Amino acid sequence: MSKDLESFDTTTTYRTVSKDYAVAAEEFWGFISDETIAHLDLRAGLRVLDLCCGPGPMTLRLAERVGSGGCVEAVDVLEEMRTLTRERAAQRGFAHVIVREGDIDALPEGDASFDIVNCSLGLYFARDMARSLASFWSYVRPGGTLAVTTIGPRLFDPVRPVFFEACEAELPGVGTYLPWTRTDDPDVVLSLFEQAGIPGAVVSTDRRAIRLASPQAWWPIVHGSGLRQLQEELGEAAGDRVRRRCEAWIEQNGVTGINVETLRLIATKPR
Ligand SMILES: C[S@@+](CC[C@H](N)C(=O)[O-])C[C@H]1O[C@@H](n2cnc3c(N)ncnc32)[C@H](O)[C@@H]1O
């Protein structure tokens, strides 16, 4: 398995997946956003920065909590994601959501003005994660909060190894570098916070099973997640064989849920 972040084409993957990700983020793993929201002290009127906003699962939840007297600035590197967030915020009448282009590898120094800075399921795309974390911290006001959510180990077990074996059988060497494995260990993420000069981060983990209502429920998860890169690389015919192999295995083994663990790190800036 390649260990090279560059081997995962983040731009093409999330550009291709954007609309399906928006659906999956609500239908399958909206609970990740809900759990992060539950960890934050959200009140009307707060100013929040949502980095790597994607199609806005966190942006919309944050906007609802801070209300029209607050503000949520949502940032993503991809236009497709920004458009979805903008449209979904407009559909809800959230005029207090501002969507901007931004790259977490190259954020300008912040002005320490945000009550909360959030980055959900995005840190692991940064080339230098400690440097990006330090830049996130520069946007947090004294007394404010930085919240980072990442994916824990064993994502999508027990189906994941079956899926990868089937992919490998179809196309040996198919890109299997998964950026989220860079931050699936709480000690590693805590040490990144320390390297970034962020003191006192509190780490918590949540372990859930996403319900698979039927064997056919697996493929929309591939189709609507970062695994989409493999589906695209396999092409239609091989992708179809992989899908059928996974569905048969899920059926034979009576699997009705897949593992999703999340890690949350929350740090409060000293006043
Ligand atoms: C897995 S999605 C997470 C979306 C959302 N935050 C959520 O909780 O579901 C990752 C997002 O990070 C964005 N992204 C990846 N690399 C980035 C970068 N260097 N700077 C800003 N956004 C980036 C992608 O475009 C994508 O929208």
From TrEMBL:
Alphabetical keyword list: Methyltransferase, S-adenosyl-L-methionine, Transferase
What domain of life is recorded for the organism?
Bacteria
Q: What is this protein called?
A: Methyltransferase domain-containing protein
Q: Which organism is it from?
A: Kitasatospora putterlickiae
